[in-house]
Amino acid sequence: MTQTGIGVGVARTEVEVTVGAPRERVWRALVEETGRWWPREFYVGREPKGFIIEARPGGRVYEDWGNEAGALWYTVLVVEPPGVLELAGHLTPAFGGPATTTARLTLKDEGERTVVRVEDAIFGRVDEHTVPRLREGWRALLGSGGLKSYVETPP
Fold first, then answer.
1. Which domains are present in the chain?
2. pTM strictly above 0.85
3. Is the pLDDT of residue 108 over 90?
């Protein structure tokens, strides 16, 4: 049985968020302190212990549920500290797939601030809601509900 409005294709979006901190600080928060700013509503596990980015080629981007359980979000393809992180992952039917996703995050200096840019593309099962959901998700993760708030809020 097939649903109308869903087919195989490519969905692509780009999002930019400006963070009021130097690039090295934003990079450190992005790849080393992810579990501290990752929004609770983005976890897929019921009782996650943390969200981890292993910032090295072949590293994992995953939710740690403890006891060797968890969810793999991406595999790291490219790391160029403190400016580029490229990822590739798979979406199962439970998350809108089957599809493959790639994301490239770049950090650029803008005076004393940093522009965080993500380019995300999904190939596979997509529909008219895919791009708006991607854009909204990345804005929430990187913006005032996630990375930006964490970095800009004093301890």
1. 9-152 (3.30.530.20)
2. yes
3. yes
